[in-house]
Amino acid sequence: METSERREEKPFSVSFSFPRDALSTISLRRPNSVVSARLKERMLILFSLRKLKQLNGNIMLCPNCGNQIPDNSKWCPKCGQGTKKAPANRVVSNPNPVQPNYSPQQPYYPPQQPVYPSQPSFTPSNDEPSIGLHQSDNIKLINSLKKLRDEHNTVMVVEHDEQMMLSADWIVDMGPGAGENGGEVLFSGPPQEMLNGDGKNYKGYTFDYLRGVKSISVPDVRRKGNGQFIELKGACGNNLKNVDIKIPLGCMVGISGVSGSGKSSLINDTLMPVISNKLYRSLYTPLPYESISGIENIDKLVEVDQSPIGRSPRSNPATYTGVLTNIRKLFEETPDAKIRGFKSNRFSFNVKGGRCEMCKGAGVEIVEMNFLPSVSVKCKECNGKRFKPEVLAVKYKGKSIYDVLEMTISRAVEFFEPIPSIAQKLKSLEDVGLGYITLGQSSFTLSGGENQRVKLASELARQATGKSLYILDEPTTGLHHEDINVLMGVLQKLADQGNTIIIIEHNLDVLKSVDYLFDMGPKGGRDGGMIVAQGTPEEVAVAANSVTGEVDLQRVASKITLRLKLPDYILVPIYDQEGNPLLDDQGQIVHILIAIEKQRCQNDEQPLKGVIFHIGQRIVADQHNR
Questions:
Q1: Direct distance between the N- and C-terminal alpha carbons of the chain, in angstroms, rounded to an integer
Q2: Quick check: 488 and 429 in contact, CB under 8 A?
Q3: pLDDT (tens digit, 9 = 90+) per residue, 504-516?
Q4: pLDDT (tens digit, 9 = 90+) per residue, 216-231?
Q5: What distance in Å separates the CA atoms of residue 497 and residue 467, rounded to the nearest whole number?
Q6: Distance from CA of residue 104 to its chain's centroid?
Q7: Residue 555: C-alpha distances to residues 541, 558, 615 (Å)
Q8: Among 279, 325, 357, 582, which is least packed by CB within 10 angstroms?
Q9: Are 505 and 511 in contact (CB under 8 A)?
Q10: Helix, strand, or coil here: 594?
């Protein structure tokens, strides 16, 4: 709610209906869609009703005051009296005090109200419950939500996950875009209704990805790397079991595995602190390990997370990328600024001189509320424009510094096109899909995915050395399929420059796009902490001990097969737990044969309806057949 007020969006109203006793999913174009915060607030109000429970056994009531007594106790926590049992399948409604003519020796039951199985109840909405879950865990989550639905509850989920949306009984799709381009209900109904329709009047992205009209494509070529490696040996912190990992440089590397398998312990808590201590003399304390080599092959370590780009409300995309410095210098060279003797610091809202001193350049004032959250109100002195009137009088092409900060990124790219030093940085923001946000938009109003892409855009705008290491921990959190597509395009550009990208991820669209994949497991906790499979996504998909491979086999292989123009079979080499190819008695690599059955629609000109994979026996393929 606060986000929508800060962005000062125009008033709107959204209404839709959904059936009771159903699993409903709201699909948002992006988590920061205009309707998102207000809609979720109303959902919390609507579904905060207490869930009615049908009791299968007897409940314990106090004979003195009628208070319910815990199952593991014989005494009332309210008055200290003994217990009596109430009839089964009943709930207590407004228990009365001790009645006249009642004695403790006589059984007494307060007025009761039966719970009918057909009576629907509500559960609060869930906002992206699949975050951080492996696909195998996601299936368990969906089954749990379906059990709640089958108990006559209505479950509402705000989600981007494909499995979750296809499992829903009712979908509300919001969009079509993000920010000022969103706020519309594009579809409300059963998902099959849109999946089976022609979609001619549909102007969103969600169902285009669900129907396969749009997809995140598999790279045509897997990078082999530059021949250099970072090798970490003997990692044994937390649940890691003396893990040895050899990471190829100059490509995109994925780290997969079920939740709790040791991915973060290996990368975030061991590898990253060690490299940071070596390169920047940091004071991190990494988890135990034996040795590391190959750090000399990189010159920069960048951790790209979804944390805010600044700690102050004054932080914005213009200040983070440094483009505001160039804009202030541009205003300094205008005739109006030279006449007044203004330097570039006059056009900064972070220092005294040109900013409004009433709000200290923030444009809003914070009003402290007793026992309530603080409230932001527009500054009365500058009317939210941050600067003094004499500074706002300085114009460049008819625009003041405030007008420039209120421009969207796309509009600013056109406005500053003749100035390469500014246009280049703005174009990098537009390339990562942030053309709808404003230059001066506070970092506190940006979503995690937007903060992440601002950081990536800043890296793209810099001169590439080709020896940087980027580490991303679940970068697709809160992102729509279209946003993931844009994100992967940015990461592919960084990898094409010779940099190394390590991605810890569960999303299948990301895992199928990496060049090399390490799968950890086989399970979580004490049963994890090992690398069970490694290689290209095609090789991990058929690994014997890989849980990710079991889940990803049909989906990943189908994408690969479509890219290979649908052969009748594919041969995939088999690797052992140590990553070595499995050989037969004659020293030949053992492959597994996957036969492909193509299911076409009635009209041969339409795309394939589906692909079925039949896993055959292990065979040895010579060089020609391979």
A1: 58
A2: no
A3: 998 888 988 999 9
A4: 888 888 999 999 999 9
A5: 9
A6: 59
A7: 9, 5, 14
A8: 357
A9: yes
A10: strand
